Automatic annotation (TrEMBL):
Pfam family, one: adh_short_C2
Alphabetized PANTHER family for the sequence: DIHYDROANTICAPSIN 7-DEHYDROGENASE
Keywords, in A-Z order: Oxidoreductase
Name of this chain's protein: SDR family oxidoreductase
Transmembrane segments: none
The UniProt record lists the keyword Cell inner membrane: no
Highest taxon in the source lineage: Bacteria
InterPro entries recorded: NAD(P)-bd_dom_sf, SDR_DHRS6-like, SDR_fam
Origin species: Paraburkholderia acidicola
Keyword Oxidoreductase appears in the UniProt entry: yes
Family membership: Belongs to the short-chain dehydrogenases/reductases (SDR) family.
SUPFAM superfamilies to which the protein is assigned, alphabetical: NAD(P)-binding Rossmann-fold domains
């Protein structure tokens, strides 16, 4: 009987989708610091090259979560995937009354179909001690009504998806990290002034008076990779935001 409660990352292969920036890059940094071999996956070659260099020459692969072929190609030639982390996902907003439904539904493709493609492609490379971490979000618990209805549905779906997969894929563990407001490039879509206003307002509302940092989310994800008894869990790292 395996009684270990901590899974060593020393020598483990961790594949991070969304690994070129933000939470994904912070996760790769934290995993590498514990001895892991990391592969960064993202949509933009230039960003991947910069991130790979910053990590001392980490492996990189270009893929779009909405393109099944490119996702599957990431795993071609790999011998082993100990841990799969998926933080990729853009912020697609728009109110249903004035937005094309197909545009809104892209959020479901990114956050449900994309991870499904990646998990399916990685499964045959994963040992029984392997784990998967998906990314949900605070909107699952606190929908805003500001054009984020489909994203809210998508991140709630991620939680149900992970819990069911934890049973289906056992003993491989499947968990979700659910971030609140975090200072990452995700908010760049709102422009410099809009980004600053959104994050400042969020910080004022939180009990700690500040938003999160990418490294704090990276540490949380590494905890989910390492703790062998955490399974089918949704870990909220939101500064208490879902309660205010």
């Amino acid at each position: 009987m395996n009684t270990a409660t901590q899974t060593s990352l020393d020598g483990a292969h961790v594949v991070v989708f969304g690994g070129s920036t933000g939470i994904g890059f912070a996760t790769a940094q934290a995993a590498k610091a514990l001895g892991a071999e990391v592969t960064l996956v993202g949509r933009t070659r230039a960003r991947l090259d910069a991130a790979g260099s910053a990590l001392g020459g980490a492996a990189t692969a270009v893929a779009d979560m909405m393109d099944r072929g490119s996702v599957e190609a990431v795993f071609a030639g790999m011998a082993r995937v100990d841990h799969l982390v998926i933080t990729a996902g853009s912020l697609r907003t728009g109110k249903l009354a004035d937005t094309d439904p197909d545009v809104l539904l892209a959020a479901l493709s990114e956050r449900i179909a994309g991870p499904l493609y990646a998990i399916k492609a990685a499964l045959h490379l994963m040992p029984p001690t392997g784990s998967i971490v998906l990314t949900g979000g605070q909107l699952s618990d606190r929908p805003s009504g500001n054009g984020t209805s489909v994203i809210a549905a998508a991140v709630r779906g991620v939680e149900a998806f992970a819990r069911s997969l934890a049973l289906e894929l056992q003993p491989i563990r499947v968990n979700v990290v659910s971030p609140g407001y975090v200072d990452t490039p995700l908010f760049d879509a709102f422009g410099a002034e809009g980004r600053a206003a959104i994050l400042e307002q969020a910080a004022r509302a939180l009990p700690g008076g500040r938003i999160g940092r990418a490294d704090e989310l990276g540490d949380a994800i590494v905890f989910l990779l390492r703790n062998a008894y955490v399974n089918a869990e949704v870990l909220h790292i939101d500064g208490g935001g879902r309660f205010v």
